[in-house]
Amino acid sequence: MTADPTTTHPALAATDPELAALVGAEERLQGETLRLIPSENYVSAAVLEAAGTVLQNKYSEGYPGRRYYEGQQVIDQVERLAVGRAKDLFGVDHANVQPYSGSPANLAVYLAFAQPGDTVMGMALPMGGHLTHGWGVSATGTWFRGVQYGVRQDTGLIDFDQVRDLALKERPKVIFCGGTALPRTIDFAAFAEIAEEAGAVLVADIAHIAGLVAGGAHPSPVPYADVVSTTTHKTLRGPRGAMLMCREEHAKAIDKAVFPGLQGGPHNQTTAAIAVALHEAAQPSFQDYARAVVANAQALAEELLARGFDLVSGGTDNHLILMDLTGKDVPGKVAAKALDRAGIVVNYNTVPYDPRKPFDPSGVRIGTPSLTSRGLTTEHMGAVADWIDRGVRAAQKGDEDALALIRAEVAALMAAHPAPGIPA
């Protein structure tokens, strides 16, 4: 049970009790449910505090030492601290911590290296890619000519012969690797070889796996990619923000694309929270966390396979599992909504070569960053898989009593593993 918002957020409760009540309700929801959405996590109390400081009050167009407003003596130090920590943690020449989120960060990459109408290349959205990798409904697919690669239907793995053939045929200015539903290790070296042969800039979008890279649980793209784009939440356990990291030769182009190309003043309170998260990620305990995220995901995948679930690519190397529920005779959306009622928070998702529509797909996407942050281990993954199995079967039958029973069991386990950053 979480604390009363009148105690934990007294100023908010006094000024706007309606909103304070909603914040309290969200705290209870996050505290009582099993959060399996792979792009979500819990930030620490320190990150939350940094995000709520008086740094919110400052407007700071420009970069440290080169601002368009006075009074930036402290802000410059905050941003330099975040930049230095990013460079040290990921081993990069240059880091920009100002992008507001992952999509604007990727837009800045296009602005730096391409002109409207140029060909760009990325993984197709239905195959596990991201909207901003040149997909048609995104601005990146409207302003640029997007060509997409996918995965093999028989293995669920990237076919690098196809990637190479497509790159040499289309000669894109930019190639993105990475995505939002990729359960396997990304071969950055293979992408770099293809990008060099095609004369393209290689961008590694590690938004999902940045924390795993920082913690040594996934290979780093830094030796291979011209630019590394990432959000700062997800596995990195920071605030909702983003970073662009690159080789020194691209630093000016990247900085100019972020500001003044796309943005005005940075969100200084987010910059501060990013700095805190990067400091936390540099601690030895974070390496343990990153390895535990992967171990939990692999254990959960094995438990799901044992219960007859079909997993895209047959399992996972990282934090993410993509389940194809076609064989369970229940659509992904129906299953996701039923699991939500059971206190298990997932998202419905397309699977490669999905015959169903994107808003009513065949799959469910799950991940282990949040539950690992709460201290759950591989010993708990059997119970988690059992709840998912029971929840999907209840969804088939419309058995709300079974879902309510699962929710009570989930709440009991969550009570024994308090969530970071949520008032007790």
TrEMBL record:
Pfam families: SHMT
EC number annotated for this UniProt entry: 2.1.2.1
Name of the protein described by the UniProt record: Serine hydroxymethyltransferase
Gene: glyA
Coiled coil: none
Enzyme kind, highest EC tier: transferase
Lineage start: Bacteria, Bacillati, Actinomycetota, Actinomycetes, Kitasatosporales
CDD domains: SHMT
Annotated signal sequence range: none
Annotated function: Catalyzes the reversible interconversion of serine and glycine with tetrahydrofolate (THF) serving as the one-carbon carrier. This reaction serves as the major source of one-carbon groups required for the biosynthesis of purines, thymidylate, methionine, and other important biomolecules. Also exhibits THF-independent aldolase activity toward beta-hydroxyamino acids, producing glycine and aldehydes, via a retro-aldol mechanism.
Modification N6-(pyridoxal phosphate)lysine, positions: K234
